[in-house]
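ARCHIVE CARD
CATEGORY: sequence design from structure
SOURCE FIELD: tokenized fold
FIELD CONTENT:
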């Protein structure tokens, strides 16, 4: 069975079934025997790798492997140098300190980025900014919790790379063989 790359849309579960009737991978992927190597939250978007290779799944999902995961985060507020330094050094979360991360403030949203449905509705008078964050661990809602810890709540989160696998030009809901 091949390894698949999928652009998970907003409000889709990173699994094939759901007892509550929410949208799942089965609504988009008709390949049997593959499973997500790691997860993306229901309200996050972007690259999901699906495979039947247990070793590949462990390599991509296990924090001990140090696989880099790259995210774009639209945050509320204007990040200052000290905020970026705190994120890069690692922040204290309720389940312990995070490992250091690579963090870069982007001048604007990438031009290739699709419009989310429903669109982000920033609060009146609150600016937003885009960060690119590279992590080597993947705790539950880690990017969202890290940005919140420095006073920059995440409004939109998109994973664009996992190790050597990149989202590329996949549109939301599309998949391809890696």
């Amino acid at each position: 069975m091949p390894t698949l790359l999928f652009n998970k849309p907003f409000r889709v579960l990173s699994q094939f079934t759901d007892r509550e009737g929410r949208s799942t991978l089965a609504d988009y992927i008709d390949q049997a025997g593959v499973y997500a190597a790691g997860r993306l939250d229901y309200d996050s978007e972007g690259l999901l790798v699906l495979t039947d290779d247990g070793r590949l799944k462990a390599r991509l999902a296990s924090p001990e492997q140090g696989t880099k995961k790259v995210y774009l985060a639209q945050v509320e507020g204007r990040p200052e140098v000290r905020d970026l330094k705190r994120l890069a050094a690692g922040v204290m979360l309720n389940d312990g300190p995070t490992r250091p991360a690579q963090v870069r403030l982007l001048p604007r949203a990438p031009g290739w980025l699709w419009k989310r449905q429903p669109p982000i509705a920033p609060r009146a008078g609150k600016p937003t900014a885009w960060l690119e964050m590279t992590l080597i661990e993947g705790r539950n809602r880690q990017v969202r919790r890290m940005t919140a810890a420095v006073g920059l709540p995440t409004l939109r989160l998109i994973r664009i790379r996992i190790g050597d696998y990149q989202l590329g030009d996949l549109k939301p809901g599309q998949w391809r063989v890696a």
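CARD ANNOTATION: The first strand starts at residue 4 and ends at 8. The chain has a mean pLDDT of 94.
SHELF: design records, drawer C
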